[in-house]
Amino acid sequence: MIELGERLTRVASFVPNGSKVCDVGSDHAYLPVYLIQNSQITSAVAGEVVEGPFLSAKQTVRDYRMEDRIEVRLGDGLQILSKEDEITAVTICGMGGELISRILEAGFTGGHLNGQERLILQPNVAEHFVREWLMNHSYRITHETVVEDNHRLYEIIVAEPVNERVEYTELELKYGPILLKEPTELCVAKWNRMNRKNKEILEQLQKSKTPQHEKIEQFENAFNELQGVIDRANS
Ligand code: SAM
Fold first, then answer.
1. Which residue of 29, 59, 95, 102 is most buried, as measured by CB atoms within 10 A?
2. What's the confidence (pLDDT) of residue 60?
3. Which of 10, 22, 50 for mutating ligand 1's site (highest number of atoms within 8 Å of CB)?
4. Angle, to 10 degrees, between the axis of helix 30-37 and the axis of helix 51-63?
5. How far is the CA of 50 from the centre of ligand 1 (A)?
6. Does the pLDDT of residue 116 top 90, yes or no?
């Protein structure tokens, strides 16, 4: 049986039973193999844009004798998909939020998303890009969580398309509408780490010999805003 780290195990837990999954950026295809071994899904498409990881993904699928259930495709983002694939869940993990939102945008405008898929997204950084994309394309965030893997803290964002406008505030886009309402211990730990970084930068700026008024103001605002979020979560 394949073993996944905590990050991808939690991603897998958001894939509905019986889904037809497309895993974008699937380097070793571990996630689709795991989902099939657990009988959570019966088939998947694994996409990779870079040849090396594409070949690794193909090799894993061969090693686990799953060629009849996992199709590995070489190509950019969701553009490897067509309506006939009848994908019901898309996973995009381990990339920056900006790249994930660009992949979603290209998939959406190119008609590669069928409008039915659950999106399970795990941005490493810049999560607000992902939430902004989801809001602007009428996807409602249904689950958010923070996981710890190898001493790093990662956000997982799950969303589904809805037939109405979706609106999130600036604060919700930055920190997550669900995380703000139900902050877990790991989520608060992540915010604390972020704010320690804000503080470090602020201290460096204050020591700088050249005037840094604008930047200082920017980081002071960021620090105070996040401290408010943390204080509310702890109250
Ligand atoms: N998804 C795996 C995970 O979470 O462990 C692998 C993450 S790895 C850091 C990112 C992978 O995404 C790389 O193998 C990279 O080649 C692939 N990738 C980056 N941009 C892509 C794109 N536009 N389409 C498909 N794959 C992409």
1. 29
2. 98
3. 50
4. 20
5. 8
6. no
